[in-house]
């Protein structure tokens, strides 16, 4: 009996992937953040806390997947901008407290890795952070309307535990949070723009909004 040549099959699979057009490969890349999103959804569904899917990092993977599938530069950019502050917040409030979990790590580290690859094509412009900020306001409103108060998704219901002494009113906290979010998004966009500037380099990507 002849044993199958596994190495040959792997080489053939790689060859078939490489003959795909760069455009098709970039669109297929969108499968990764979609998988990350679905893995997180499965985790939260199992523990009865699907409301956590409204966190900016989780829903950002879905947004990134949509941007890649439909070749929307603006969508890819605003999703990418959120990956950096999202990673920082996740590390401080999740990793340092609870440790690292597979699906959570994929959503944050994997999502950022995919965004970096995608920006190699779609680049970053200097106004994308404004779209990311607008997206944040929309998702925070949806979080307040459709998620349980005890989950406090995107801090849309109450002051972050540990900050109660600094903020006597939730709305004072919210204004401060919103200003800090805007600054972080601007810095994130500036950093990504300094690495992958779109201005005058990729008009076709800018047109795909």
Which helices and strands appear, and what pairs or packs with what?
Layout: H1 6-18, H2 22-28, H3 31-46, H4 56-69, H5 73-98, H6 102-122, H7 128-146, H8 170-195, H9 203-207
Helix pairs in contact: 3-4, 3-6, 4-5, 4-6, 5-6, 5-7, 5-8, 7-8
Textual characterization of the structure:
Helices cover 70% and strands 0% of the residues. The protein has 209 residues and is mainly alpha-helical.
Concise synopsis of the structure shown:
The chain has 209 residues and is mainly α. The chain contains 9 helices and no strands. The model has no long low-confidence stretch (mean pLDDT 91).
Say what oligomer this is: single chain
How many discrete structural domains? 1
Number of helices: 9
**Intertermini distance:** 56 Å
What is the overall silhouette? Answer: globular
Q: Roughly what is the average pLDDT, rounded to an integer?
A: 91
Helix-and-strand structural type: mainly alpha
Could you name the ranges where pLDDT drops below 50 across 5 or more consecutive residues? none
